[in-house]
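Request: Mind sharing a record?
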Amino acid sequence: MKPDKSPKISIGSWAYAIGPYANNPIPLPEVIKRLSDLGFDGVELGGFKPHAHPDLYPSKKDREYLVKMLKENRLEVPAYAADLWSLPFAEGDPEIVKQYKQMFKRSLDFCYDCGIPVIRVDTVTHTPFPENLDYPTVWTRIRDMFTWCSDEAKKKNILVVWEFEPGFIINKPHEIKKMLEEVNRDNFKVLFDTCHAHMCSVVAAKQTPPLDKLEGGEKEFAFLLKGKIGHVHIIDSDNTLHDNETSTHAPLGTGVLDFKTLLPTILEAGYTSEWWSIDLCFWPDAWEVTERCKNYLDRVFKELDWK
């Protein structure tokens, strides 16, 4: 299966600002310039300091400057990862819930002012599922928060995408499908990260028993979420976790995933966007392997006759 439009490649800016780069982040203008030189079509902005946090671009004038810098470097922004990781709303603390909503609305305003059409969320609370929390109560909190986020985003015509992963609660394929069905909003879909999809469906990493493995792995998972994939992160998997938390984001071509069959499967599962975003989150030399990953994905697209 071929896409309706020629695919566009972006990469998440957070790879150069958090994790191994936290103590020496690469400035966003430098990131933008290099990605442009490498021929990327876009950069997926991380809302984490010192990159695209609303505090750093507080006014519309500041945001216009950011948009101008991106345009001058011929880069679009397909999506935005809001800085919500410090606010585990699902645990029920009223103050945390309040702060989460405030930060989400500020992030929405940032997206609207910068013309960014997609905003990322997750369940924040780490796995394994905390013993002190009641599952049905937590499920309801997450469902209600994602519903609220979607309703707020709809006012600004922005799509909310939930990035499921082994390291955050609600990490089983059929749980994820059920959450999508219960939120039941047209502008609420999943962010299908290929290494997370593999670790959740094949390895069943950090799942509370009973495990929910899929015989068809990440490809079957894509079809399980048919029509509900709103954004895609492309990255390889080596069947391990990074620091026993999130999936290891192995550079393209170094792991076990077969992208020549997986990418068409994602299309067949109803993915309609032209964007494919590389995600080198927590990779220790992300800056050095960026060009290699871009070239790898270009080759895959060429072999698929997509470009």
In short: Strands lie at 8-11, 45-46, 80-81, 118-121, 159-162, 188-193, 229-234, 241-242, 246-247, 275-278. The chain has a mean pLDDT of 97. The chain has nine helices and ten strands. The radius of gyration is 18 Å.
